[in-house]
Amino acid sequence: MDQDIWQNILDKLEHNIKPQSFRTWFTETSLIDLSDTEMTVRVPTQFAANYLNQSYANAVKEISRSLYNRDYQVKFVSAPPSSSGSKADIPESKGNRVAVNTKLNERFSFEQFVVGRNNNFAYSAAKAVAESPGYTYNPLFIYGESGMGKTHLMQAVGNYIHMEGRNCNIYYTTSEAFTNEMIDGIRGNKMPDFRAKFRKVDILLVDDIHFLSRKEGTQEEFFHTFNALFDNKKQIVLTSDRPPKDIPDLENRLVTRFESGLLCDLKSPDFETRVAILRKKAEPENIVLQDDTFNFIAESISSSVRALEGSLIRILAYASYNKLNPEDIDTEMAQNILSDMITENRKEISLDNITQEVCNLWGITPTMIMEKTRRNVVAFPRQVAMYLANRLIPQLSLKDIALYFNRKDHTTVIHAKRMIENQFRDDKDLRAQIELIIKNIRK
After folding, report:
1. Concatenated DSSP letters for 81-121?
2. Residue 99 Cα distances to 1, 163, 182, 235, angstroms
3. Disulfide-capable partner of 139 in 78, 154, 236, 284 (CB 3.0 to 4.6 Å)?
């Protein structure tokens, strides 16, 4: 009877949220306790429990009130799944050696990853995957701009499983390397060996999956590799510089498979996180800087984690060459040492940049794009500009974007984003135009 209640709630919830969200969070849930005032639901991991308690407890509460006229306090708790695919069934013997691809960088561990508001969700998801590969979020798709830590998180999954000593094969590669191996397999008539190599792994980690763009043959081969691994509950982790639907000329069947798991984006770290990253990166090199110098670097360089690390390397090299102790380098010296990096960083993308480039391409003026008119000659470029603003300046709220373009509220931006995304996948000309605009903006 209790499970009937939960199933009824799930049935209604499924119609109120996105299909992907429902598959990700609710397919492995079960009601384990129900009283007159409380409802307790079991989920596979603690990460899922934390997320659902924060994001969906109130929605479930409202649905239960509408169905049964009861105000239940909803609580999600973690416990190992009861199915045959439970974590308990995964070999975890410390005595077993894993076969691990040597390209994994040992420095890329969860302990060395600095967690902030910009990456907490992706970090927690990757940790959950590492603790229960193949059964938690599969595939795990991590995307974000270059230098944000995607490769670090992906390889941390492999390194964690390796250190746990589980009896499984871990393989890390890039989509470019995958393509080159496939070409070698075709050239040498060794495609059966190529397929066997990739389809027998337990953990497949593929970096920069967006480079599958426009490679029809490689996409076909990866599609079958993906299916073979997924059907056998083998864990797949992918990284990209953009979400699946924004990868040009990526087959729809791959888009839907990549989106069937969990998508996590990595955004630019905030000031506090940048300071923490600098201090974390400085520790193994025994770099001791003044607090003001750390703060100055964090304020001046915000483009990526990689740029922060590069700033420390440059300061260390300068100090070594000039026979100085790093702690003697003050903010003025740091500004001189990092002058070109700071100048490059200050070339930030702005709404004005985006608007001007869009107007240049469509032959209109910024004044025209701000008008109330719905004429397609103006309305469509405005939608493109809104889409690009949301994509290239993630720290801006939808409301900020709407106000800039003289629109009533954020729903206009949501509509524009959906319109462009829907056309982006099938319209090659539009994709080329948008890629050209982005290239010009980032010059």
Report:
1. -SSTT-GGGS---TTSPPEE-TT--TT--STTSPP-TTTHH
2. 47, 12, 22, 15
3. 236
**Burial readout 138-175 (b: 16 or more C-beta within 10 A, e: otherwise):** bbbbbbbbebbbbbbbbbbbbbbbbebebebebbbbbb
Give tens-digit pLDDT for 392-420.
Answer: 887 778 888 999 998 888 888 888 888 88
Largest Cα–Cα distance in the chain?
77
Kindly give the pairing relationship between strand 235-240 and strand 169-174.
Answer: unpaired
How many residues does the structure list for the chain?
443
Q: What is the pLDDT of residues 157-197, one digit of tens each?
A: 999 988 887 778 899 999 999 999 999 999 889 999 999 99
> Can you give the pTM of this predicted structure?
0.63
Asked whether residue 55 carries a pLDDT value surpassing 60, the answer given is yes
Q: What are phi and psi of 74, to 5 degrees?
A: -95, 130
Closest CA to 388 of 439, 438, 440, 426: 438
Whole-Å CA distances, 19 to 63, 88, 256, 259, 351: 17, 29, 11, 10, 33
Provide the sign of the torsion angle of the four alpha carbons 350, 356, 357, 362, taken in this order: positive
Of 21, 425, 421, nearest to 260 (Cα)?
Answer: 21
Structure tokens at 341: 């990096």
